[in-house]
Amino acid sequence: MIDRAMVRHLADAARIDLAVEEVDRIADQLTDILDELGVVRALGEADGAATVDTVRSDTMHEVEPPMQPLRADVPGADALIGTAARFAPEVRDGFFTVPLLPSHGGDPA
Amino acid sequence: MSARLARLAARVASGEITAEKRIRGTFDRLMTGESGPDRVNAFISFDYDTTVAQAKRVDADPSLRTGVLAGVPIAVKDNICTIDSPTTCAARIMANYRSPYDATVVRRLRAAGAVIMGKTNMDEFALGSSTEHSAFGATRNPRNLEHVPGGSSGGSAAAVAAGFAEASLGTETSGSVRQPASFCGVVGVRPTYGRVSRYGVIAFASTLDQVGPMAQNVEDAALMLQVIAGPDAYDATTVDMEVPDFCAHIGDGLSGLVVGIPREYQPEGMDPAVARSFAEAIGVMRARGATIRDVSLPHTDLALPTYHAIASTELSSNLARFDGVRFGARVDAATPSGMQALTRGRGFGAETKRRILMGTYILSHDPALLAGAARGRALVTQDFLDVFAAGIDVLFTPTTHAPAFKLGAQLEPYEMYMSDVLTVSAALAGIPAISIPIGASHGLPIGGQFMAAKWAEPLMFRAAAGLESALL
Amino acid sequence: MSAGDGLTLDWEPVIGLEIHVQLDTATKLFCGDAVVHAGAPNTVVCPVCLGLPGALPSLNERAVELGVRAAALLACELRHVSRFVRKSYFYPDLPKGYQITQLDAPLAVNGSVILSGTGDAVGIARVHLEEDAGKLLHDRVPGRTAIDLNRCGIPLLEIVTDPDMNSAADAVALARQLRQLLRYGGISDCDMELGSLRVDANVSIRAAGSNDRTSSRTEIKNLNSFSQLERAIDAEVVRQIACVAAGTPVASQTLSWDAVAHTLRVLRTKEQREEYRYFDEPDLPPLVLTPELVTRALMDLPESPVERASRFVTLGLPDSSARALAATRTLADYFEAVVAHGATPRGASAWVLTHALAWCNTHGCGISAYPLAPSMLADVIARAEQGTLTRDGARLVVHALESDASAGTDPAVTMEVTVDGIIERLGVAEHPDESAISDHIDRMLADEHALVARYRAGEANLFGYLMGRLMKEAGAGADPRSASERLRERLNNTEER
Ligand SMILES: [Mg+2]
Ligand SMILES: [Zn+2]
């Protein structure tokens, strides 16, 4: 059961601003979807000691472990076409810029 | 009608037609055709000048002019980065994004002489099965404009079905190439995970995403895969092994193949027309010398909820970078965190937000679900290993349980996810699969799907081409 | 300030360190951008380190090798298979919204370092690879925070110690020793000012002598020198004791040391692990250390400073000289090269520790910048030891070589010419026939052994008489200046006593 407080907490962690009606709708929908996934959760609980410490999303690599290829330490990155101004929302003097951090005098409002 | 792409390329190589002339023809068709772009809405962007400029480069460069895709107009899904057109993922937050680099698959297409003629519509961030959830409006099914083309690669399927592009690239997480291919009556391929580079493909779920070709026939799809496949130093999940000739055995026919029919793939509520076409296809294969065997994939029921847990988790992490700081749209605020929250709150669609929050919940509060998903994935994968080890060459199933549904059907989220139920297992197991047209009902195409063991695409293409020619 | 009041008798600090060092690679951890410390903002970036849509990481082999080297120097167990994870949080200097790091399956675990001062062992809990974040600047663009991502993706090695230290002094000693080891191994230049060595301290207190592990700890960040590390820990220990004395429990917090005000500031309450939403990095398969990679990584791994110093002692050097020479790898290498070119270990030690280091101190540089090639210094030392140069003469030659070389000639190329040329120019060569003077000195010293003993006992005014005896013995051909020098050397030679 996902309540509204939980949705607001998640939205905060995921940095998503939600309208009140979105909070309501998402709370209901997540509750439903997570219900549908109960059979999978039961598998995890049956496997024992499932804590956040053992989070492992990916078993494909375990069924048939490939080796991670390694890159030689030789300069040569993929080149960018054009400058940051091509894709960035705000660039000044070569810097990406954002509102001033509150810890450095920005408006915390 | 097989090997159409090869013939088109050969005509450019021989000088019979220039790439530029062909591209001009393509655009004429696109702008004036009966079911033109405005009605189908297959594309988010296409630009005449950019495309003609590409064609001129092909004509001017002998190595491109003789490439295996010389002057062939290819459409590319809009979550694949291209330097000469926007790449939007059909999301407001990316509406004006211009990538400063090309995806590896795009580089490989260009190096083969192909011309990227447009970027196709999709469900936002590839989250959906209908191509209705796009910031640029819904795409319509060219076979019947009242119906959806499927999704999330609906634009890529529609572009090929409508004849705007000779072939296209889509992307798959749980079936987003095969399902729209089935709905639009074209061929769609999911390669083995690790066969095709994901570099430059905007990630949804990294352990599941693969780029897949869509084409009018099996041989063209195999040729497209030939061009884009192979290890890539920019993607550590591509596997360093030689790419076989996907067309080498494509004409060997069905005789001698052992085809498994998984009994779990006949879900309740299967459309009778789908069931009929499927049965007919089995009959045709048997008549052509294939051995048909009933097989079981006992953990199939686990696949969809397992997929859902994994995909949401990976999505929530992969979309963290869309924060308005370095690229894309921004909604400004007094603080960086306020700016990020507003940008994401306004820039993401409803489904995207819902799934990010779900993934965030799983990662911070539901470890048992994630552990169960890992277990579920292993079980589903083992099912496939078992049947292929028991002598099955390919598995054959319907691609979807029904033909394309109507636009605006307003499915509940979990209902919509159900349309992946027959395609999702292959994605979890990382095995290759292909959807080909096997029939129609009231003018709407019906697709059948072959699945093969990892790296066994040649066998998969042989079976698919065999059935394709038998059904002609 | 030191925790000196009565309360400290009842409490003892428990200290662990988390150390980040920048690995000495040519390129970043997950992309081919060069590692540079200067440069215009956002000029050493690519799709990968900018975290652009669609970009994927590819792991730098050299970073793995350097991690393996560090693990070996810290006596860690290597993990045959390690994994990368995503550590998620939003901050403008973190492009992807997560840092790629290692968690449950780090590169290496269970090492230790013996503190050279006390002989106590400090456990090394883990060593892992991770990527650096970018830089935020708040005074470059009026009213905005400016972001430079050149540093993004630079490879870091994080070393986490066990909470085995009970004083700020021990913590500093460990940090110094780690720095020496890592420099030795060519793993990092460990420059705290440049940020290539960053030390965070975890501090808690417990009843003195107890094994209590329940008290909550704080983490102190932003420590830019060893003295700040020491001060900050001391200040935090005092603060925690005061908290407990006042009946307020110590809160689990992340603190920042203000180096100007000498105070601790609360950065944030410490995150719970689940807030970072860790999960396996799906873009990177498990990292498998092949035997070939490990062999390659350890191939030229030097002895540790401690091992090297004890080997120098076996060459006949006093303990203090051996440790001084082994202090940095480059100095020890230089010393050994001089010996390899024919100098005696004692001679090489004396010349390197006095002349060469003096020159380096004056010029504010390391031994690698010292203008005399080892072969050249060995040549001069050999001449002095054979008696074809006096000690003063050798000194003059070395000074001249230093200034010639600093003036731009290449001494390595014209070694013989230069040493011979300088000796010629300075006129400090001992004439070959004059080396016969030694025989005269031998004879005279034997004849006058009673007077010699008195001179050596302190009667310095006997020198004139002994010199007169020598000149009579040697005859008119002898050069009085060098004869008197040689005589004085022999008289003052302690080994002849
Ligand atoms: Mg760290
Ligand atoms: Zn980079």
Oligomer: heterotrimer
Largest sheet of chain C: 9 strands, mixed
The total count of helices of chain C amounts to 15
Distance between the ends of chain B: 10 Å
Cα gyration radius of chain B (Å): 21 Å
What can you tell me about this protein's structure?
The complex is a heterotrimer of chains A (109), B (472) and C (497). Chain A is mainly α. In chain A, 37% of the residues lie in helices and 6% in strands. A two-stranded antiparallel ribbon of chain A has the order 1-2. Chain A is flat and about 50 Å long. Chain B is of the alpha/beta class. In chain B, strands 1-3-2-4-6-5-10-11-9-7-8 form an eleven-stranded mixed sheet, with helices on both faces. Chain C has 497 residues and is an alpha+beta fold. Chain C has 15 helices and 16 strands. Helix content of chain C is 39%, strand content 19%. Chain C has a nine-stranded mixed sheet, covered by helices on one side. The chains are: A mainly alpha (109), B alpha/beta (472), C alpha+beta (497). The interface between B and C is large, with 43 and 32 residues. Strand 2 (95-99) of chain A pairs antiparallel with strand 9 of chain C, so a sheet runs across the interface. Bound molecules: magnesium ion and zinc ion. The site of zinc ion has 8 residues of chain C, from loops.
Task: Give the SSE map.
The complex is a heterotrimer of chains A (109), B (472) and C (497).
Chain A: H1 4-13, H2 20-36, H3 38-46, H4 60-63, E1 91-92, E2 95-99
Antiparallel strand pairs in A: 1-2
Helix pairs in contact in A: 1-2
Chain B: H1 4-13, H2 19-32, H3 37-40, E1 43-45, H4 48-60, H5 62-65, E2 73-77, H6 104-111, E3 115-120, H7 154-161, E4 167-172, H8 178-184, E5 187-190, E6 210-215, H9 218-228, E7 258-262, H10 272-287, E8 291-295, H11 300-318, H12 336-347, H13 350-365, H14 367-389, E9 394-398, H15 413-417, H16 424-429, E10 433-441, E11 444-452, H17 457-471
Parallel strand pairs in B: 2-3, 2-4, 7-8, 7-9
Antiparallel strand pairs in B: 1-3, 4-6, 5-6, 5-10, 9-11, 10-11
Helix pairs in contact in B: 2-4, 7-8, 11-13, 11-14
Chain C: E1 11-22, H1 61-73, E2 77-78, E3 81-82, E4 85-88, E5 98-101, E6 108-114, E7 121-131, E8 135-141, E9 144-148, E10 155-161, H2 168-184, E11 197-207, E12 218-223, H3 226-245, E13 253-258, E14 263-269, E15 279-280, E16 287-288, H4 291-298, H5 305-314, H6 319-325, H7 329-340, H8 345-363, H9 374-386, H10 391-406, H11 415-426, H12 437-447, H13 449-457, H14 463-474, H15 480-492
Parallel strand pairs in C: 12-13
Antiparallel strand pairs in C: 1-10, 1-11, 2-6, 3-16, 4-5, 4-15, 6-7, 7-10, 8-9, 11-12, 13-14
